[in-house]
Fold these 2 entries.
Entry 1:
Amino acid sequence: AQKITQTQPGMFVQEKEAVTLDCTYDTSDPSYGLFWYKQPSSGEMIFLIYQGSYDQQNATEGRYSLNFQKARKSANLVISASQLGDSAMYFCAIKGPSGSARQLTFGSGTQLTVLP
Amino acid sequence: DTAVSQTPKYLVTQMGNDKSIKCEQNLGHDTMYWYKQDSKKFLKIMFSYNNKELIINETVPNRFSPKSPDKAHLNLHINSLELGDSAVYFCASSPQDGQGAPYNSPLHFGNGTRLTVT
């Protein structure tokens, strides 16, 4: 079975500063994918970034980057130069063979608040 | 233009009623899903269909019945609604994973249906 743990229920960051949202995972699969999603207060789920288990480099997408430490089974999301619009719920998720047929298994989320 | 659309956006109904939520995707994806997000924001898979065939059916009461008339549609019918069914239900779709990078396809979500059972 696969599991995602997000230990920070809530985080605060000052506008324009960087913030790291923690994610650890548990899987026995050698091959898997890690994903981060953003859910603003309007409710939609927005895909942010993907990291494959065999990727040699950390994934980056604009202001989002993933600090992937495979040996520690962590995939932390780093948001640089935070903006007020980054205030949202952030979910880490995993996909792999033991998750059965390409489903995503989500963590409990981190509520990020960006302060002006 | 909408990629994954689900209707209705809000659904308020009384206990014991039967209701349906519709979902359509125009992305050409072969797999569709239903997820439930509870009041604590936890997202849990309910069902998954691949090319109209059911491939995931998690421990969900059999009052919930998915139906996929074709690859682009996955509807969710709920019988005898209970208070505990109140949640946000998300439809999602995904393409085939890449050959060189398995498990790399993100799910594309609809905007959710907020179901309130009174």
Entry 2:
Amino acid sequence: RKEVEQDPGPFNVPEGATVAFNCTYSNSASQSFFWYRQDCRKEPKLLMSVYSSGNEDGRFTAQLNRASQYISLLIRDSKLSDSATYLCVVNRYSGNTPLVFGKGTRLSVIA
Amino acid sequence: DTGVSQNPRHKITKRGQNVTFRCDPISEHNRLYWYRQTLGQGPEFLTYFQNEAQLEKSRLLSDRFSAERPKGSFSTLEIQRTEQGDSAMYLCASLPRDVQETQYFGPGTRLLVL
């Protein structure tokens, strides 16, 4: 089983739609959780950290369920510029350990 | 530009040749990571430095791969006797001493082995 699993998509949605991505992780010792965004042929960039209490940044909302080892990202009012691959990322332990990435979910927002 | 930089940005080589990539982390970031990303996959961890010490290596890092960070600043990743399966984007990320989470990625070096 992959350590971080995501639906690869693609998700094709019209502008203004709400879209949700899900992710599961297998290592219950994982400490930190993130969503990264990656544009075609570019490096991954941090979109937001994910906290147990849930957190929101503008149109983006992230949720973490430690009991189910499940992470989600909700994008409201999708924009064309949201088209990208969204990577679910887990830090195995705290501090210095490397990040573990899912394969990514590809989103295309269509006019 | 004060971000992570990587050179070269693109490299085409013939199978069997050696290649070397360089990463310059954000100034004073003491932690540096190398990842590899192949098409359709997320980045996969290769190796990690804290200052000049290489503290962790992935099983992905075969004997043909070597990484250094001699003065605790820039790092190099060398691949000897390249194979077509080495074709990928090689990403470097750095992290400051007091931050436990966010890693800042460089633009990557895209390698194509013919």
